[in-house]
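Whether sequence alone determines local backbone shape is best considered at the level of individual chains. We regard such an encoding as a compact summary of how the chain folds. The sequence in question and its structure tokens are set out directly beneath this paragraph.
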Amino acid sequence: MRARHHALVGLSFVGALIGCASPPPPPPPKPVGPPTDTVRVPLTDLLTRTYFGHAGGLYPAGINQPPADHDSAARARRKTIQPLDVNGDESPFGKYVLLSVGMANTTQEWCSQNSGPPCTAWSFMGKAAIDPGVNHSTLVIVNGAAEGQDAPSWTSATSPSYERIKVGRLAPLGLSENQVQAVWVKLEDQKPELSLPADSADAYLLLTNLAQVMRSLRARYPYLRIVFISSRSYGGYGTTDLNPEPFAYESGFSVKWLIESQIDEMHGKPANPRVGTLDYNKKAAPIIVWGPYLWADGPTARSDGLQWNRTDFEEDGTHPSQMGESKVAGMLLDFFKNSPYSKCWFAANQYCL
């Protein structure tokens, strides 16, 4: 028994020495990063992570830049933007139009709440008008957006919305539809009801409407070269059912899927049945690229610092206040002055190479 006792003591002593020399490693830290699949994260920060199974990023493969062939096609089309006369013929005295298409928020940010001139000083058109870095010789910026004109108002080329622009916005400036060569689109479907992941979610309905808008724009404006499209800003302060969260956020997926559908079709895949053809070589639609991406999760700043505060919105929490209008206007001005698809015709003394 004594020998056995000494043996056990010896083993315990050796084990203690081993334990002192080599403590067990601490457990690995819990991974930081991917949120659950239901958390709303800006698409520009979501990247390859997912929201209800849908990858982020502005373009396919969870990235924020278009694939090389889409980039090349967009650059080729921006080079064809040039001064035209009202008949669509090249002219050294001609103009080209950058037009907005959209709803109440769009017109407030682009020009004014009542859609018509004069534009507010803090709007995009107001800021651009006094910016010496903007081309004021051959470029004409026109506001076509108006209150109450949500996506269904623009799905047909014969819609009164387009006639209103022709008669009330272009003609008074001595311009025609033949001179519209670039368009910024920001649209929504009013009072959405079903969110993702439902198969009939409003994000899919908006996708279908946006595709019809693209084809209508191409039919209405024969010399349209490129469309820039943005989704909604934050809707979490909304006090009505007009377009609250998560619908404002999910509209970003509608835009992403629209552009992705065009890219896939140009790669030889069958047209998305929710979308239909967007083949720009066959002139079914213009080439489509992202404009500024406007969504951030309220006061939580996204990676580039953008955030939305309650003071950026009117009492209803949906329409932008003067502060919100100015914020979007600044993003638009910065975008058009620096985007590779616009700066050579939007900015002063620039040339498309």
